[in-house]
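User: Hey, quick favor. My workstation is busy. Could you predict this chain's structure for me?
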Amino acid sequence: MKTKPFDCVAMKRAAAEKIYEQINTMTREEELRFWNADSGVHQKPDDEVHESTGQESVTSSQMPSDTTR
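Assistant: No problem, here it is.
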């Protein structure tokens, strides 16, 4: 049987467990602060992303509307 060098599901579960241990005793307000403080850590502003890829930013008003819903 082939062994997997990387198990995505196990990694996701370990990360979820770590987060649970951090937030399980927090109040609702503390938990909201926790998530809001972490929300932008791994994200670049759109302008930086598009500059690095050579693409232009598109706003939602410039996108075609989906009328099939």
